[in-house]
Structures are given as C-alpha cells and as structure tokens.
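Researcher: Please predict.
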Amino acid sequence: MLARTLLTVVAVAVACALPCAAEGPTVNPGEWQITAKTEMTGMPMQMPAQTVTYSVCMTPDRPVPTGPDQQKECKLLDVKAEGDAVSWAIECNGAQGQMKGSGKIVYQGDSLAGDQTMTVSAAQGMSLKIVMHMTGKHVGPCKDKQ
C-alpha cells in the first residue's frame, strides 16, 4: 500500500513537472526600457562603445527585446525559452549590410540582462563583430500596440 501511494505521488509530480518545464519565461507583460551597450570589433579604427536606451512592448509571446531598427530590418529565428532564459537567432538586411547573430537574455522579475552578438558582412569583404550587452526593466503597461 505504501509503495502504491509513493508511486502515485511520484507519477503526479513527474506529470506536473513536464508541462511546467516546457513553459516559457516569466515575462511581466508591458513596456520595458532596454539599455544596450554596443561594442564593435574588426574595423580599421577602434570605435568607442555606444549606449542606447529604447522602449519596447514585450509579452510572453514576444520575449525578445528588439530595438526599433531591428523590428523593421530583422527577422527572429529559432526563439527558445528554457526557464527564465530566452535565446534566439537573428538575421538582418539593412543599410549596414547583411547581419547574422544570436542572443540570450535572462528575466529576473521586473528586470532582464543578456547579450546579442552579430556578424556583419560589409562591403569589400570586411567582416565586423557587434556585441550588445543589454539590461532592461519593466516600466508599466504598453503605451501603444506594437
């Protein structure tokens, strides 16, 4: 009898754990303020790091903090969530050339932190590496539907 009860408890625990593990990150839906510090390597002259801050409306279905230019010129591929971590691949075609990369962020309540690395295939066979270090905080409800 004790073995049957223990087996039932284990079966219920496993059954609950499987769907719970497959759930996406805990994203507080709404407007997020993202600060991205961008570093570039591979240029003839070393560029100083650039820091930009932007707002983006994020939901559990849209957990990647894409900037305004990325929303127009880029396509997110292979978005995966594991616990509170989100990873993705990204491809962009814009004025700067073709870019490919990947990123990963981790949500922690009303904040996030992570990196995105891009490789730019520019003119004359030049290749640049761009690394964006991102931090973010939830600031309230979305201001407009994005």
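Model: The first strand starts at residue 30 and ends at 41.
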